[in-house]
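1st attempt posting a full record on here, be nice pls
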Amino acid sequence: MKTFKACVVIAALCVSGVPAAAEDNTAGRSLIEQGMELFLKGLQDEIAPTLDGFSALMEEIGPGLQGFLEEMGPKLGAVFSKVEDWSNYHAPEMLPNGDIIMRKKTPEEIGEPNGDENSEGVEL
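the predicted structure (as tokens):
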């Protein structure tokens, strides 16, 4: 679903340069070009409210997010450079004292063999 939303946003950005389909400027264009133009115009009309809401949200949280990134960006970069595979970690969790931790998965949770001949847990 996230991939679909990202594709829609990218398409909307591409559509912004397409002339309005309501114009009667169809001379010299194929039916495929006209159809694509109508499709993109419809797509733009559909996602316009979402993009407007996103713009309002960014205006509201933008300054706080910028401050967070200025302060925490270098520290997060250091953490990101040390982690080879994020799928080896559980989702972050907040402790009652406010600390946020990320627990590393055990080899069994990751699905790695632990050296036993029977590493898949199948009884023979």
